[in-house]
From TrEMBL:
The keyword Transmembrane applies. It is a multi-pass membrane protein. GO terms for biological process: monoatomic ion transmembrane transport. Residues 137-210 form the Potassium channel domain. The chain crosses the membrane at residues 12-33, 45-64, 76-96, 102-121, 133-150, 156-173, 185-210. This is Two pore domain potassium channel family protein. Keywords: Ion channel, Ion transport, Membrane, Potassium, Potassium channel, Potassium transport, Transmembrane, Transmembrane helix, Transport. Gene3D superfamilies: 1.10.287.70. Pfam families: Ion_trans_2. Coiled coil: none annotated.
């Protein structure tokens, strides 16, 4: 089996500003959510502002590109919604936070995760199994760090990775569970991302076996086609030789028939 690192897999790096901006919104959300100090809340709002600026520049570049090529993209509308949500997160203060604000913040995170999925997973192919496994491991390690930061019952990074694995796998042993609102919200999104990521990994593994079997069938089919081509060529040669013999016999009969008529 071959696992080529194709150029198409890395095409999502052609929009690094959008990728970095989307990734910055994740720690920004949790700094604002769990910000027990003014410094943490200020850091979260600063990250929101930086993410909005990066995505605004990227969206402007993409809009100019699509305008010159006379194309329309619904993803730019999604990017505009995310930029607006980040700017509103910078403007709103934590003192006036209520249920509606946090519902809107959760909706913003859901849209951001959707955009990340469309940005990264749209180029996935069965030949990208190694890259998908690497992304899954990175997500697992990042989730472990997130639980280590957000969950007070996690006392080490290893326990954070273990909680992330049991959450993604939906095993639920119960030895360590999320107990704070921040870690519970984090667990929800980790489960959703885990379903998507590991489903793709499993599908790619199955597709590799199917692809290998299809390759063998294709080789056999090509061999049969070559064999049939040789048989058709031999039949054509035989028909040509018979045609030549028939013409030679016809030419040999013509003088005889002339002599008999005389």
């Amino acid at each position: 089996m071959k696992f080529p690192v194709t150029q198409r897999f890395w095409t999502w790096f052609t929009r690094p500003l959008l990728l970095i901006g989307l990734l910055l919104t994740i720690p920004a959300f949790y700094l604002v959510l769990g910000g027990t100090t003014d410094v943490a809340e200020l850091a979260g709002r600063t990250l929101y502002a930086a993410a909005a600026l990066l995505m605004l520049v990227d969206t402007g570049l993409q809009w100019q590109k699509n305008r010159s090529q006379k194309r329309r993209s619904g993803k730019l509308i999604l990017d505009g919604m995310i930029i607006t949500g980040c700017l509103l997160s910078v403007i709103f203060t934590g003192e006036a936070s209520g249920t509606l604000e946090w519902v809107l913040r959760l909706a913003l995170v859901a849209v951001i995760l959707l955009r990340l999925a469309t940005l990264v997973l749209q180029h996935m192919k069965p030949s990208h199994l190694v890259q998908m496994i690497v992304l899954a491991l990175l997500m697992l390690c990042s989730a472990g760090a997130g639980f280590y930061w957000l969950e007070p019952n996690v006392h080490s990074y290893a326990n954070g990775v273990w909680l992330a694995f049991t959450t993604i796998a939906t095993v639920g042993y119960g030895d360590i569970v999320p107990s704070t609102p921040a870690s519970k919200i984090f667990a929800v999104f980790i489960v959703l991302l885990g379903y998507a990521m590991f489903s793709i990994v499993t599908a790619n593994i199955a597709a590799l076996f199917v692809e290998e079997e299809e390759a063998n069938l294709e080789k056999q089919l090509h061999a049969d086609i070559r064999h049939l081509s040789r048989e058709v060529a031999a039949l054509r040669d035989e028909l040509r030789s018979r045609d030549r013999l028939f013409l030679e016999r016809e030419k040999a009969r013509e003088p005889r028939q002339g002599a008999q008529t005389e």
